[in-house]
Design a protein that fits this description.
It is a single chain. This protein is an alpha/beta fold. It has 9 helices and 11 strands. The protein has helices spanning about 15-25, 60, 80-90, 100-110, 150, 165-175, 175-180, 190-195, 210-220, and strands at about 5, 30, 35-40, 50-55, 75-80, 95, 115-120, 130-145, 160, 185, 200-205. The strands form 2 sheets. The protein has a 6-stranded mixed β-sheet, sandwiched between helices. The chain is elongated, with a radius of gyration of 18 Å.
Length: about 220
């Protein structure tokens, strides 16, 4: 019998991922570990930048009306979900990266970007430096309270780990004696490393596309 697949990402992404798993005929365990909320911010003068970097769709979902002042900047985004969220509110997409924040910066620099503005979360992979002229926090991901009876449901599942922070939180929630029967499908090596050792299996997706990670989880669940 196929193992349930646990989805830890915040809403609304949790619902989207879980629905895709269920559409494949599998059981999805929906257990968001964090919730994203907007953080007050002020948009700088767009004339001081030649590109906008987005590493998460949450920057668009929670950026609010201040984003309007930046619509003239071409967007370099991590992932098609982030790019589509930006496109829907009027941004022009210059590049979509699939290998994470560092690759995005390298690609932007190779394309001639010299002064990029980064909009991201409070806990993020990138800060100002190099071609990233300024980094602004527009949202925060806050930990949700997970009761012991919820955490025990992860026992024996295949868990999708989509960030190092989620991996670290998972390690706190799953008892060591439950890890030996629980597997992880991780979005990156850093996410897998954050989850620690002792798991039944840990596999890393070949790229950062959501469909690739789901495909890996489906394989591990069999």
């Amino acid at each position: 019998m196929s193992r349930p697949i646990a989805v830890l990402r915040p809403e609304p992404g949790n619902r989207v991922t879980a629905s895709a798993i269920e559409a494949a005929g599998r059981v999805a365990l929906r257990l968001p570990l964090f919730t994203a909320r907007p953080v007050p911010w002020t948009a700088p003068d767009a004339a001081g930048f030649d590109a906008l970097l987005l590493t998460s769709a949450n920057a668009v979902r929670h950026g609010g009306p201040a984003l309007d002042a930046l619509l003239g900047l071409p967007v370099h985004a991590v992932g098609h979900v982030t790019a589509e969220a930006a496109r829907r509110i009027g941004f022009r997409i210059a590049h979509i990266g699939e290998a994470g924040a560092a690759e995005l910066v390298a690609a932007a620099e190779a394309a001639g970007v010299t002064r990029a503005l980064l909009l991201g979360g409070r806990e993020r992979m990138l800060e100002a430096g190099g071609v990233v002229a300024q980094a602004i926090t527009v949202y925060a991901s806050e930990a949700l309270e997970i009761e012991p009876d919820q955490a025990v449901r992860l026992r024996g599942t295949v868990v999708l780990v989509q960030s190092p922070r989620a991996g670290a939180r998972l390690a706190e929630l799953v008892a060591p004696d439950h890890r030996a029967i629980t597997s992880i499908a991780a979005i990156s090596a850093r996410a897998a490393e954050a989850a620690g050792a002792g798991w039944r299996r840990i596999e890393i997706a070949r790229d950062r596309r959501p469909d690739t990670l789901i495909e890996l989880a489906l394989q591990l669940a069999d």
